[in-house]
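User: Before I run my own analysis I want an independent prediction to cross-check against. Here's the chain; please return only the structure tokens and, at the end, one sentence I can use as a sanity check.
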Amino acid sequence: MTTTLVGNYPGYQGSRNRHHGLPRAGAHVRDARLVLIERLRPHIFRHRHLLDVGCHQGEVAVQLATTFHAGRVTGIDLDPDLIRRAWSHLSFHQSRMLRRTKEPQRPAASSAAGEGPASYSDHCYFPLSSVLDHGHRPQCVPGLDPRQRRGPDDCDWDHAKGGGDGGGDGDDGGDDNDDEEEEEAAEGTEESAQARFPHNVSFVCEDWAAAPVPSDHANAAAAAGGGRGRRRRRPHRRKPTENDDDDDHHHHQYDTILALSVVKWIHLQHLDAGLRRFLARCHAVLRPGGELVLEIQPWSSYEKAVRPNKAPHLAPNLARLTLRPDRVCLDALLAEMGFALLAEAEEDLPRRIAVYRRL
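Assistant: Structure tokens:
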């Protein structure tokens, strides 16, 4: 019986860790791969805009935003059920947070240390048991299943969306300058709030590796960001306008892209051409100097993946592959695509993890 179509096993990330004798990443256990990546490249996550390709149930994306202080995280997966679980996972963590109507004051020492707007303990105010016993509290996380909003539509996070106290649904005949000032203040509030967890995490259901190059993901990312439509049709002053001469993804480029435990499945599903297209698309949406992080599955893992109890329908594709995930072949391919190897580790974890810079 086939257990997966494209590597979307239930509990895939946790299963991988258990099979290799590693602790399963959870609310209080940092993912060993992320710890290693940060050790290889300090500050690769902090305050950066990250893309997690093959985000599965969102564990890595949420941990990047909470424990590793990422500025913004977008998770991509082609399985809609996994994306629903990712939103639920984000909602679960949000439900453990203490309600706040404004950003708490931080000691000067924390700011000097370069910490994010909230430490991990701020995201764990309520114990796990409180959410398990009482369910998720009413949320306004974009993409959340409405069935999890168990209560009146009194969103805890209206302040984060510029919704505040209402009063802006129709023209009140007031002075246009006052309206513009109020709107600009709301935009500033929204921009500040969206930099805070959980509003700096979003998920998109898309076969990102199959999309053409140059990327059209910018539109999907913008839609997932949850920005509200506005009554006045002015361009936002804090963003490039639609008349910008740069390419489509100019203002949605990433600082870091992570492809953890997913390269094998992209390769098997889309063949050699698909792997090249995936790397080309990573190059297209990374900022110059941005970093691509790969967890590289060996060829023996490819052979196991097409066994009868896993994904036997991909066996014909395996026979057609000419590229191999070994160091010489893969590094040469990445160099051809415009990447340079920055750092790598092979002995610390069962699989090689390599960080490449976009040239």
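Sanity check: Residues 51 and 257 are 5 Å apart (CA to CA).
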